[in-house]
Amino acid sequence: MFLPQFDAGLYGQLRRNAGSVWQSYVCHDFVQQLGTGTLPHHAFRHYLTQDYLFLIHFARAYALLVSKFSTLPEMRAATTSLNAIVNELPLHVAYCQQWGLNESKMEQVEEAAETMNYTRYVLDIGHRGDALDLLAALMPCVAGYAEIGLRLLNDPNTVLEGNPYADWIRNYGDQAYLRGVQSSLDLLEKVAHQRGGESRLAELNTIFNTATRLEAAFWQMGLDAPAQ
User: Fold this and answer.
1) Which of 20, 52, 53, 67 has the fewest Cβ atoms within 10 Å of its own Cβ atom?
2) Which regions of the chain are under pLDDT 70?
3) pTM
4) Which residues form the Thiaminase-2/PQQC domain (predicted)?
């Protein structure tokens, strides 16, 4: 089984330096309730709708990342991730339909403050910083979801049989997905070597930690959704 190298390189440093901030994200109550199948359905539906809106802006962030590069190999690597998100959207919509959500309705839903805060922060980092800054803001989502999926799949407290969220959990342990995550980690490492990642660690830590806190707030947004 292929596993991304979460502990290696710059990403490993950023993840370790995030400490309790990282743990509050990957071990959030929303995540734990997904694993046990006890998450209220209305909370998950709210999360799915906001995640649809989030993915649109995440694709914009990767399009911005492409423009930050000047060599074809780097542009191709960023474009691969962009295409993966764009191609994921129809799959996300199809999954949402299983929960009674259709694309036209999700498009009309107002963005939650947490969605706006997170996506606009990432885009702002991309506009005012370079490719390394933007990658540091993107990685908590890209690699964090893989870590969460693998944690749940290997957690003895996770219940898959009869769990309505089992397909969601399995999706983030998919081998193709995990290899894509490693490609993003490899790109981060390459760009860090080129653009003085070690000398910029304090700034990159701040970006990574802020994005991680915004990820945890996104989970909390789902958990706090009012019953409908």
Assistant:
1) 20
2) 228
3) 0.94
4) 18-224
Q: Compute the distance between CA of residue 59 and CA of residue 62 in angstroms, rounded to an integer.
A: 5
pLDDT of residue 208: 98
Report the domain count for the chain: 1
For residues 122 and 59, the answer to whether their CB atoms sit within 8 Å is: no
**74: annotated active-site residue:** no
Q: What is the CATH number of the domain that holds 113?
A: 1.20.910.10
Q: How far is CA 124 from CA 70, 92, 116, 152, in A?
A: 20, 25, 12, 32
Active-site residue, from 74, 114, 147, 215: 215
Q: Which residues of 188-202 are buried (b: 16+ CB within 10 A; e: fewer)?
A: bbbbbeeeebeebbe
Instruction: Tell me the backbone φ, ψ of residue 124, rounded to 5 degrees.
Output: -65, -45
| Residue 1 counted as domain residue | no
d(CA 104, CA 156): 39
Active-site residue, selected from the candidate residues 74, 96, 114, 141: 141
Q: Is 27 among the catalytic positions?
A: no
The CB-side HSE value for 174 (13 A sphere, CA atoms) comes to 10
